[in-house]
């Protein structure tokens, strides 16, 4: 292991994505390693918002059909731009709603308890919002979540085993919802195998791609996944509260959405104002109301960057960055009782590292005070996300050095070991 700074500089020189850093607003006095919570703003995202504001100014109501990006087709166009990121057909993707509202929409559409099949399967490590949504969906069907929500257990509280997931696919399961990447440990689930096993048992399956879209390539159509949903403010850099996305496999086209509204309509029929819905013939049918145009606008710029970089190149650099960071942590921080709790191997490691330490909360505060932005996950986790499009190998080197000096000089002891309101 070469721990010299010159090695980081060399890696940066060889990096064929290095020019993308110039596309982002990067602070000179901090190192941002939190792109998996809120991605940085790009110049193109900013410009795209200005363009949409200009079309509102210039066209008013006519902006729905006029201007560079007519708003009436914006959700579909952004869906098409997202399709290659997840290996879907363009008409299988729509940009709409939020992660959680899309989950509600998809469970409303795909969960049809019948006979013995009345249960939903999830896992015990997923993000709380997904679990709240699943429980409330069961309640809407008059089913007790205690009995009808199965949560696959983790042996180590950080990762899930494929065989435990398959074992939980009992006869009474109608629907499975799992994350593509676990938000804490960054473990990638084997979506292809899990989907195949679910289908063998007549179970429909969908994935939450919040931490996988923009961080790893997917082949949802080839894997035959039934549905998926994601946010766009993490790895996709769409900005706070940017409009989310969803995917519906084309074999499910033509059905009415569980939660209908006039934007579920086939576009040519929408303004007939009929009281009988003619659903759009594709994923567009899973929209509900008028699109949040201003919160979707940044994606016009940020998705363009992903199209230019390509997911294969993004993934390759991301793995190099996390490999390099793990090696440096092992070489430089071995005296300070950190546990690397993310998966090590490249098949199951997502785009962030997860360190555990009993003083994690105050170590994160000390890092921020020294200009390194990580994020803390209760009770003892530190997530570090070196992002392929805008972080450098030198960022990684510098942050490990800063962390080392914080530990060596015990500067974290100047802070209380408690999380903030947002952590
Ligand atoms: C970030 C995240 C969410 C957030 O849901 P919103 O509706 O966008 O607030 C949900 N689920 C997972 C797994 C996440 O990582």
Question: Can you describe this structure?
Answer:
- The modification N6-(pyridoxal phosphate)lysine is found at residue 234.
- Keywords: Hydrolase, Pyridine nucleotide biosynthesis, Pyridoxal phosphate.
- Its cofactor is pyridoxal 5'-phosphate.
- GO terms for molecular function: kynureninase activity.
- The structure is a single chain.
- The protein has 423 residues and is of the alpha/beta class.
- The protein folds into 2 domains: 5-32 and 310-412, Aspartate Aminotransferase, domain 1; 47-308, Type I PLP-dependent aspartate aminotransferase-like (Major domain) (Aspartate Aminotransferase, domain 2, 3-Layer(aba) Sandwich), CATH 3.40.640.10.
- 37% of the residues lie in helices and 12% in strands.
- The protein has 14 helices and 13 strands.
- The protein has helices at residues 5-14, 43-59, 74-86, 99-110, 128-140, 145-148, 162-167, 191-200, 220-223, 267-270, 293-309, 311-332, 360-369, 393-408; strands at residues 31-32, 93-95, 119-123, 149-152, 173-179, 204-208, 227-230, 245-248, 339-340, 353-356, 372-373, 375-377, 381-384.
- A 7-stranded mixed β-sheet has the order 2-8-7-6-5-3-4, with helices on both faces.
- The mean pLDDT is 97.
- Pyridoxal-5'-phosphate binds next to helix 4 and helix 5.
Characteristics:
423 residues; Aspartate Aminotransferase, domain 1; Aspartate Aminotransferase, domain 2; four-stranded antiparallel β-sheet; 14 helices; binds pyridoxal-5'-phosphate; Kynureninase; single chain
